[in-house]
Amino acid sequence: MTTSSTTSSAASADGSGILPAELEDLVTLFDVRATDSPTPDAEREAALQAPKFGTVFTDHMARISWRQGDGWLDRRIEKYGPLQLDPATAVLHYAQEIFEGMKAYRHADGSVWTFRPDANAARFARSAHRLALPALSVDDFIGSIAALVRADIDWVPSGEDFSLYLRPFTFASEAFLGVRPTAEAEYLVIASPVGPYFAGGVKPVSIWIDEHYHRSGPGGTGDAKYGGNYAASLLPQQLAAEKGFDQVCYLDATTNTSLEELGGMNVFVVMADGSVHTPELTGSFLEGVTRSSILQLAADRGHQAVERRLPLAEVVAGLQDGTVREIFACGTAAVITPVGRLAGDEFDLQVSGGEPGELTMAIREELTDIQYGRAADRHGWMRRLA
Ligand SMILES: *Cc1c(COP(=O)(O)O)cnc(C)c1O
Q1: What confidence tier does 13 reach under pLDDT thresholds 50, 70, 90?
Q2: Which cofactors, by name (predicted)?
Q3: Residue 29: which domain range?
Q4: Which of 161, 171, 205, 228 can bridge 196 by disulfide, Cβ–Cβ 3.0-4.6 Å?
């Protein structure tokens, strides 16, 4: 199922597009136990034509098991399917679980790439540390993704803004009700084909600034990609949706005055002078790979790119007097999402006349051009998987 390793792609970091031998070694560690009941071609093709995010999964999953004392064992690619869990499995009670989110992109020449997987691997290890879970090596992280993508290569869609979403995760699998770090864990990667986040063109979203709920606080788990952070965001998200808003933006838990991030996306503000601002990392919200890439791309374009405390009052005043020109949110799933409306208890303001901002859309296009191999990968962000 592996594709030729010699086809060239214009977009590889070193210009060769040749798969590094070292990646082959990592993939070889995974024992491929192929499904005996793959999805029929016609059914798969239909799913790829109109993918519904997170509902359809590929035929296989990558898996590695961990036991205290033995380490990571049994690297394998196996049939995608239900897990059997003892009712006392620790994750079901104490939520010891971390995850990542990334994408595999098919380039015009058929090769398949991913974006900055080393950054995701490093963050996954940091999340593991915070949740007292075993950390996976960068090699196993990248090897598992490449092995799964190769097993399910026919599931990587082609076409504008289509990709294969990859979801690596680790959970506490020990059946034990005592409160202590698990002595057993499972690492899995599952994959789901996705189409354009905005069917029918990019549309600005409305954002509710929540001045009552926080998803994390200082010393908490906000800078880990931890399932529990999402559980904490569901009620505020539901309340905002009832008011007619698409997403919630949270404020810092200490002063309740500065922007932090959305439930699953980082936030940026573009000023009238062209400078681009995003909340500085405080340890209480997630450091997005998209966020750091945008800081770089904005600076490359000659914009001042600033990480700093971003007071809500300044953003509100800036929208009123015109010093704030654009606001956008960013993350792997939606790439860059323009914000067209910002509201809270005491304000309700249009952003960029309710239209996608100019710089927002320019950076969005540049980033997706790099990811899909339409623009030179000048920062060496792309890694070829197959
Ligand atoms: C995943 C995630 C993001 C975005 O991170 P990317 O690496 O850009 O995909 C932002 N905030 C939260 C809370 C997240 O979980």
Answers
A1: very low
A2: pyridoxal 5'-phosphate
A3: 10-196
A4: 161
